[in-house]
Design a protein that fits this description.
about 30% strand, alpha+beta, Aminopeptidase
């Protein structure tokens, strides 16, 4: 399968939102209930304008279709799209803070073909070039295997309340950028 990576644009918003929904609904069912997936789409999984404006969000395009997306951030928010209520858009200090890996999604028909790994590698390289020495993320359960395979460490599961009575299990993970 051939694809190209490019920076996401604001014009990609609708395609990325559709991709996020398809990815969550198609690749998360072994780890989360449909109630959890739908609540996550309502509250945290979504398009992040800051990442696009900062030019730290990438898309993988195959035959004109966006089939994967993900990015890194120099802002304090660890996860959550524009609709996430407790965002902190403050800037990180590369000498003190880890960069953030954010919002990785791949269309189910294109999963396990190296797309997320390619985007992750590009993000790590950019974060390192921006002066960051470490990087962290909040992994969904389906993403843990990818991140571990790419050198991220973290085992503890945290429960994040999406809305009353609906929690999502997540795993905080970190990596030193060499």
């Amino acid at each position: 399968m051939e694809y190209v990576l490019r920076k996401a644009t604001l014009e990609d918003r609708t395609a990325i939102q559709l991709l996020i929904a398809d990815s969550a609904r198609g690749l998360s069912t072994q780890d989360y209930s449909s109630t959890q997936i739908e609540a996550a789409l309502e509250t945290v999984f979504g398009f992040d304008t800051d990442l696009v404006v900062d030019k730290t969000y990438m898309v993988a395009v195959s035959d004109g279709l966006i089939v994967g997306c993900g990015g890194w951030s120099k802002r304090k928010t660890l996860f959550g799209g524009d609709q996430y209520e407790t965002r902190d858009s403050g800037k990180l200090d590369p000498d003190l803070d880890p960069a953030k890996i954010r919002a990785f999604f791949v269309h189910p028909q294109f999963a396990r073909k190296g797309i997320a790994r390619a985007i992750l590698s590009a993000c790590e390289n950019e974060a390192k070039a921006a002066g960051f020495r470490s990087i962290e993320l909040m992994a969904t359960l389906p993403g843990v295997r990818l991140y571990k395979a790419c050198g991220y460490e973290g085992e503890s599961i945290v429960e994040y309340e999406l809305k009353p009575g609906v929690k999502l299990s997540l795993v905080p993970m970190k990596k030193i950028l060499v």
